[in-house]
Amino acid sequence: MRLSILCQFNRIANLKRAVRRVASVPGNFILSHPATPQPQPLDWARIRVVFAAVAVTLFLASLGQTVPTTALTTIVGELGGLDQITWVITAYLLAATVGAPVFGKLGDLFGRKGVLQVGILVFLCGSVLCALAPSIWVLVAGRAVQGFGGGGLIVVSMAAIADVLPARQRGRFQGILGSVFGLSTVVGPLAGGFIVQHFAWEWIFLLNLPLGLAVLGILTVALEKSPRRERAKLDYTGAAMLALLLSLAVIIANLGGVVLPWGSPLTILMLCGMAVALAGFILAERRASEPLLPLKLFTLNNFVVSNLVGLITGVAMFSTITFVPFFMQVVKGVSPAASGVYVFPMMLGLVTTSAIAGRIMSITGRYRILPVWSTLLLAVGMILMATAGPDTPNPLIAVYMLMAGIGIGPVMSVGITAIQNSVPFSMVGVGTASANMFRLIGGSLGTAAYGAVFAAGLTRTLGTVLPDTNPRALSAQQIAAMEPETQALVIEGIAQALHPVFWASAVLACLASAVALLMVEHPLEDQLPAARPAE
């Protein structure tokens, strides 16, 4: 019995030695234990060059969003009335909203470099059209062309980072890109106010030409040409349906209940058109071989949560950028150049907290809780702005704006990183586009809706003060020429008309904080997708 057991042990030992000998022979790795893949070393020299090109491109595109804000009163005073002030911003945001997914998909199909080059050319064509505009509506058309190219530039430049960096490192660089966005948002209003105060407003758009051509040269040298996917086909039907849907939504938000009654036949027709466009978009995305915005992405928790939070904060961000310079010029009586200074605290907070959030993600891999708390601080800043009036000290308004910026910053870097970490790598461009698209949807719809709320508030607060004047057609020059008593009443009425805008943003910021709690914190990868082991 003992001899039989010893023989069995001997056979097992011999079998183990044989397995080790076979596993040690090259080519017989099927019997060996699978080795843990080592992360591929990153080419930091190339990453720095790509990042510099991307940062400059993002700076150009985001500059186009904000540079006209401090010049709006001068522009509409020359080309149109006060009630048309939001169309110059809304047209850009709407076109950028449509351009974001289109250019994002083109980047996935044909490579980032060529798509960025086309986007710059479209942006510059729109800038020329704006500079030559003889009327407000030609200017709005030029802003739409400019926005279509600018929205694509923002999306594709951010997606290019995902091509060269793993998710864990992406957070830090996306935070820096958020800082670049914030810097351009500071420089834009300051530059716009300075130009309109010392030169003709047309130079706001003409200065894009040398900057855009310089960026085009940098991209041509810095970025490598990506391999083109064979038999790639763009979803034209989906793009058309999305453009129609968003356009009708913005028009209804701007005109509904103010210019057009909600029960009017035209309003009802546009609402029906929205329903048809939405159904057509869903049907097109289901049938398309390369859908513009794949519907299966909406089954991903972090995709939905991040985009919803981005949409809500987009309302607060762009409405603040649009209305605070106007508030400072008309209500507080500061110059166009000085009014841009009051956007600086907001962007300082945005830049700082976006970079800090990116650093936290890179070091800890944690990100879920950041937008939860930051959006609550945004709500506080908006509540304080809703209490501001002609007698509010200017330094306090700067503090309120700083709080708003601190609240927005983490949303930008966390949202893009969370989306890129949850979507398939082949859809990184579309995923990045969605983050910007929904933020721009919030900005365009919010600015349009707030413009309507502001216009209705002007009629309510100034109807008895100026019975023979359409308050929505007032210009800053007309207000400055009024008698002191009437001027004081008008300024107070304008301040009161702006308060509902900030109260609404405060409520939406609280909603964004609640939605951010639903985010699921997936681990951030330390490897590029190509280096990940096959499942």
TrEMBL record:
Residues in Major facilitator superfamily (MFS) profile domain copies: 50-524
Keywords, sorted A to Z: Cell membrane, Membrane, Transmembrane, Transmembrane helix, Transport
Gene Ontology MF annotations: transmembrane transporter activity
Entry GO CC: plasma membrane
Transmembrane portions of the chain: 47-65, 85-103, 115-139, 145-165, 177-197, 203-224, 236-260, 266-284, 304-328, 340-358, 370-390, 396-419, 440-458, 501-520
Cellular localisation: Cell membrane
Topology in the lipid bilayer: Multi-pass membrane protein
Pfam families to which the protein is assigned, alphabetical: MFS_1 (PF07690)
Protein name listed in UniProt: EmrB/QacA family drug resistance transporter
